Amino acid sequence: MSVIEITEVLCEYRKHLLGTDIAIPRFSWKLHSAERGIIQHACRLQLTLADDIDFHDPLWDSGKIETEQSIQFAYEGKELRARTAYSFRVKVWSSCGAESEWSEAITVETGLLHPSQWQAKWITPDVNRIHRESEPIFQLRREFELDHDIVSARVYATAAGVYELYINGQQASDDVLAPGWTSYHHRLQYQTYDVTALLRNGGNAIGIWLGDGWYRGKLGFNDTHFVYGDHRAALLELHVRYRDGREQVVISDSSWKALTGPVLYSNLYHGEVYDASLEQHGWNEHGFDDSHWSPVQTLRLPYEPLLAQENWATVVTQKIQPVKTWITPAGAHILDMGQNMVGRLRLSVRGADKGSEITLRFAEVLDAEGNIYFGNLRTAKQTVTYRASGDEHEQYAPHFTFQGFRYVQVEGYPGQEQHGLSLADFSGEVLHSDMPSTGEFACSDDRINQLQQNIRWGQRGNFLDVPTDCPQRDERLGWTGDAQVFISTALFNYGGGPFFTKWLHDVQAEQQPDGGIPFVVPNIIEGSSSAAWGDAAVICPWTMYQYYGDTRLLAEQYDSMKRWVDYIRAQGEDEYLWNTGFHFGDWLGLDAKEGDYVGATPTDLIATAYYAYSCRLVAQAADVLNLLDDAAYYHLLHEQVVRAFREEFVTLRGRIAAPTQTAHVLALVFDLVEPAIRARVAADLNRLVVDNDYHLTTGFVGTPYLCFALSDHGYHETAMRLLMQQSYPGWLYSVSQGATTIWEHWDSIKPDGSFWSDDMNSFNHYSYGAVGDWMYRRIAGLDMREDTPAYRRIRLHPQFGGRQLTYARAAHESLYGTIECGWTLDHGQLFVNVRIPANTTASLTLRGAAAEQLLESGQNVHVVAGILRVEKEADGVRLKIGSGVYRFSYPAGGLFRRTYTEQTMLSELQMDQQAVDVLNRYAPQLLNGALTNIVHQSSLRQIADNKITRVSEETLGRIVNELQHL
Predict the structure, then answer these.
(1) What's the whole-number mean pLDDT along residues 426-449?
(2) Rg of the Cα trace of the chain?
(3) Structural contact between residues 717 and 725, judged by C-beta atoms closer than 8 angstroms
(4) Where are the beta strands (DSSP E) in 184-267?
(5) Cis before 729 (ω within 30)
(6) Over the stretch 825-844, which tens digit does the pLDDT of each residue have?
(7) How confident is the model at residue 899 (pLDDT cuts 50, 70, 90)?
(8) Whole-number mean pLDDT of the chain?
(9) DSSP 8-state symbol, 352
(10) What are 290-309's pLDDT values in tens digits?
(11) Taking a C-beta distance cutoff of 8 angstroms, is the pair 396, 347 a contact?
(12) Nearest in space to 360 (alpha carbons), one of 347, 349, 350
């Protein structure tokens, strides 16, 4: 048996690619070996027609290629044909000469490769029979005959609206709200479905349900309808292949029939009204009498925007049973799902009279009195109404809407007034883009573990085809700023390759002629080009490159990236400062003026900081793409913008001119200050946090980078205390209030149970969840090298958890395989567990370790296989290690001991119960009464110098001595 094997093969991030229009697909594969230090030395790739099961006559055989590349390997064979299924396989050789078996073959199937290949016509009901603005959904149908010996059948379909497809009475796929939301005027996805198993020889039928969705329904907070068009329409063609090579095609054309359906109303914000008594049983089956149905008409909608599905489909990814039901003080019957979720509620109904109504109203939280709270929905109704058919057993879930909710108010359910609600009759169906889970994080503090779950649920709820800001109120838009601050956390936790590829193509499509970027994409509101929001056009493609090594996407987006930076340069009179135009600034910063949403950090400082950052990333992208002239141009521009930032916003003595946390964070993280003053700026940032009792004041712009700025400049303990802060404002405040997702505001619910406001108060808003990126990279230590994408060269450097944590672990499923870094403190010994996938290496920094005491699985690291290099450093040991699973151990020493000195602040000591005990023994007056408020922000040295405190030098010495021995 080979010592190396191929465990998984992907094409364009998918295990099975059906209906692609990518002319040159890329392949990635994961390797496994029980041996350590495995590197791929060579590979051989083959692609053949799918019916060539044994690859006897491959269309492409690369031969043996000496290369270590095992991800994003581009197809190099003959041009692929439309609507053709291919099989792909690969084998590899390791650097030590081992040869793998061929991988399991995967299928890659093309769809329609060009809009000109469509034969179908856009159809909609005859407007003389059914009004084009009719609220009920449209039902479209067609019958047809097929011969024997069907080999395969594919449907290619899309809609101006949203649709469900049925073949012979069966739903053709699990997709929900297809074709998804894109910049419809520029780009409209079509879906490919394998319907072979649904067809039969003889009579068959196709049925389509067609709703408004994003295309024609209400969108945005301006109550705008018909954003993209006033006609719902469908486009479909079915290709059936027979064993003898013949092909039969069924298309949408004027031969179809139409009628309105039982969904009387559907809207993404407001909900759905469904009348089961209007169901026409068998309408999507052969032999149904449609003589009373109306004809359809063809529409001259464009074909040019059509492209194959790019994103993961939206599907039901999980089903959740309600955990509790009760009657509120206001008399409402409530279901509690136990989790703030996004999706729909499925109900089972027995014994309902025909025409009786069941009404479901959805909300995220309860108010202080325990009643369900709808205030933050604004104009969104989030209401579903079901009218019973009178059948003995009925089941229903909405078709063309979704809700953001934890709680459901139920009205009209049979028997609820006499017997209450039965939990078994209801099921929550979680909806989002079907991204594979790729990230894990856990630690010794259950509150942080809940925070991690809240981060993941926030992503799931807001990654329903578009990265939205919120899933419940009358907004649900693809805010660019939210996406860019969260993308790294998002790509760690879930496979976002197709998701962000699709969305970034829309960003490019919506980019304005002058290079400006809309606030939201797809763009359905006025407004564009705020700093940090527009910078998504640069930051997101670069982050995709970092996680996946996706140079194709980087090249596709590169012109958009450049145009954004060039847009900034053209603003105002000073080409190296951005001090003009509207900006959201540090949105929702807590240092804002009363009644203002914008934090205190000057918007021109933020704008110029992001200008510099985007310049740097564009220059680095040019380096990657080997665009030498561009690289030189944007590197120089970056230097000039940084120089201008320093002249404008940094004093001659090295202070940041704006005394805010966010200003210091951006200056540090974006590398905008001279190396000589970085320590001072970091110390000032630390003081700003400590002086605020270890609370943050940052908003959307500063929060994602705050803990990085602290940890990377010697203040990891401060960053940890920020994370662990349970009082407002802090990440654990919402956890302490029972949150199961990330909130839009730090105090969306105040300690007294009142709410921040009704006008902008989402309880599912992922932006502040960007702290996850820091948790994974710094606490657990699972990081990447910026100069080597996709974790080919892994950087592991856990900074541990101060005195707050004794265990942390992160794992990420990269394109190369599973990476893991975790540590445990046990009786003074530190254990670090590491997993490195084959064909990668890692740099592992172990703080506090001494090489002579450092063991791996009980052996000294100098004699262990897989450890390629051991280097002593000032604060520990750095190892270079090859692939494999490792368990390191060494004495923790003083790593988890907090060092206190005369310069330690009283407020800092008050956060440590052991330190409080010391103070109570020697200076209890500091902890009670008015004196506490006077010296709360003073150091021990300052307290001793202040005679009012009655702390002598001798007492100070005793306090410090005991503190240093904790």
Answers:
(1) 98
(2) 30
(3) no
(4) 188-194, 202-211, 233-242, 247-251, 257-260, 263-267
(5) yes
(6) 999 999 999 999 999 999 99
(7) confident
(8) 96
(9) P
(10) 999 999 999 999 999 999 99
(11) yes
(12) 347
- Residues annotated catalytic, as ranges: 475, 744
CA distance 264 to 759: 30
Give the helix/strand (H/E) hosting 687. Answer: helix 675-691
CB 141 within 8 A of CB 283: yes
* Averaged pLDDT for residues 75-99: 96
Give the closest residue to 163 by CA, choosing from 115, 122, 213, 127.
Answer: 213
Where residue 2 falls among pLDDT bands split at 50, 70, 90?
Answer: low
Q: How far apart are CA 717 and CA 429, in angstroms?
A: 41
| Cβ(402)–Cβ(471) below 8 Å | yes
Between the alpha carbon of residue 956 and those of residues 691, 912, 919, 926, the distances in Å are 21, 18, 10, 12
Q: How far apart are CA 614 and CA 942, in angstroms?
A: 43
Give the C-alpha separation, 298 to 122, whole Å: 5
φ, ψ for residue 611, nearest 5 deg: -55, -50
- Which residues are paired to 20 by β-bridges? 110
Distance CA 364, CA 431 (A): 16
| Residues above pLDDT 90, as percent of the chain | 92
DSSP, collapsed to helix, strand or coil, labels residue 473 as coil
> For 36, what's the count of Cα atoms within 13 Å in the CB-facing half-sphere?
15
- Output the six-digit token pair for 148: 């024997």
Distance CA 251, CA 131 (A): 23
pLDDT digits (tens, 9 = 90+) for 341-357: 999 999 999 999 999 99
Beta strands 829-836 and 884-891 are antiparallel
Tell me if 442 sits within 8 A of 346, measured CB to CB: no
CB-based contact 838:95 (threshold 8 Å): no
Residue 504 DSSP SS3 = helix
Q: What is the pTM of this model?
A: 0.96
User: What local confidence, expressed as pLDDT, does residue 937 receive?
Assistant: 84
Return the number of other C-beta atoms located less than 10 Å from residue 794's C-beta: 25
- Tokens matching residue 79: 């041009």
Beta carbons of 41 and 26 less than 8 angstroms apart = no
DSSP string across 673-737: S-HHHHHHHHHHHHHHHHHTTS-----TTTHHHHHHHHHTTT-HHHHHHHHH--SSSSHHHHHHT
Please answer whether residues 214 and 187 qualify as being in contact, where contact means their C-beta atoms are separated by less than 8 angstroms.
no
What is d(CA 672, CA 642) in angstroms, rounded to the nearest whole number? 6
What's the mean pLDDT in 303-317? 98
Q: Output 905 or 486, whichever has higher pLDDT.
A: 486
**pLDDT value at 189 more than 50:** yes
Q: What are the DSSP calls for 864-927, one per residue? A: -TTEEEEEEETTEEEEEE-SEEEEEEEE-TTTTPPP--TT-BHHHHTT-HHHHHHHHHH-GGGG
Evaluate whether 181 touches 466 at the Cβ level (below 8 Å): yes
Any idea what the Cα angle at residue 411 is, between residues 406 and 416, rounded to 5°?
Answer: 100
Cα angle 661, 666, 668 (rounded to 5 degrees) comes to 95
State how far the Cα of 361 lies from the Cα of 374, in Å rounded to an integer: 9
Alpha-carbon span 592 to 32, nearest angstrom: 53
Phi, psi of 491 (to 5 degrees): -70, -25
- Structure confidence at residue 594 as a pLDDT band (50, 70, 90): confident
Question: Between vectors from CA 796 to CA 791 and to CA 802, what angle results, nearest 5°?
Answer: 145
pLDDT attached to residue 487: 98
| pLDDT of res. 1 | 43
- CA-to-CA distance for 489 and 771, rounded, in angstroms? 8
Would you place residue 757 in the very low, low, confident or very high pLDDT band (cuts 50, 70, 90)? confident
Q: Which amino acid is at 264?
A: L
E strands, 412-532, in order: 426-433, 439-443, 463-464, 466-467
Nearest to 562 by CA among 513, 515, 519: 515
For residues 540, 543, 547, 548, the Cα torsion angle rounded to the nearest 10 degrees is 60
Q: Which backbone phi and psi does 529 adopt, to 5 degrees?
A: 70, 45
pLDDT (mean) for 445-450: 98
pLDDT at residue 659 above 70? Answer: yes
